[in-house]
Design brief:
Length: about 350
Amino acid sequence: MPQRRDDDHNPAAGATGIIPDPVVRDWDFPRSPISALLLTRFAADHGVAAEVVLGGTGLTEPELEDPELSVDAHQELRIVRNLVEALPDVPGLGMLAGLRYHLTAYGILGFAFISSPAVRDGMAVALRYLELSFAFCIPRIRFDGEELRVELDASAIPADVREFLIARDLSAIHTIMVELLPAPIPVRRIELTLPEPPGSEALQEFFGVVPEFGAPLDVIILDPGFLDRPLPQANEHTLAMCEAQCRDLLAGRRERTGFAKQVRDHLLRPDGVRLGMDDVARKLHITARTLHRRLGAEGTSFQAVRDEVRSALAEGMLRDGALSVDDIAIRLGYAEAASFIHAFKRWTGTTPMSFARRRGA
């Protein structure tokens, strides 16, 4: 996969000023135990014992009630696999499971969404901290003429659980939207790669439309005006606090080991953020190609690790308040402040000056 440069951005976002792509490469990130617990209880409601649905995960139901527990994505995939194997004849299994994913299940990320000024801001927050969700489909926002498209990329999901997870994630997204807004969701069409299930006409009552099955992509098509709908519980100060907690929680989950930790350690040294991948590879006595491959095996990239380091350093310097934005940009290895400002907004959803003002710098 090509590496993103600091000035890369989603063309749709650049052209319309809306929402950048999520900053994750795939679904393989540590997760809260809530989703695993929801699926376990969903299975129990359909007569499947916890021991069956948790088989092969090394997890027990009491452990899933510990909010400090971190669940590996592959453990949750095993739960899904067990559930699908145990209930092969339940129509719309993924859709039914998605109804369990209420906004409160997302913890601090859910509060951040609720506190956002409008739907577009809530979507931006959700994509910025997607690793705090339970998604396996990677959502991307696109404009196509007069349509707003929410595309769900399921290409990396194993084939045996892909159908369930597409349906679950779609259902969960719609469930959250319905809970957030009093007015009906302006869904124009839903196109799914899935085969048409029995009784698909019943889905109109839930979505407002009958999905089109056998499509080339999984996508929800909405009225673009949906982005401007104000959220009824918007609160700027609550949003700022929630985002700060999201960043802290995400940083804890992203604590690096292996080669990623070694890269991070080099980048944190004096002037380390100026190092390129070739420079770090030489310090580790390997080729840049080998470093790229080993970081990929750990689910990350050189640019992602460097962005994490730069973001953490930038926030620290902005809190300190001793340096100007221009000075911080130079110290982080940017040729000009504009590139740093663009990158910082991609990392945090706000400009350096707004970040500093919120913290009294």
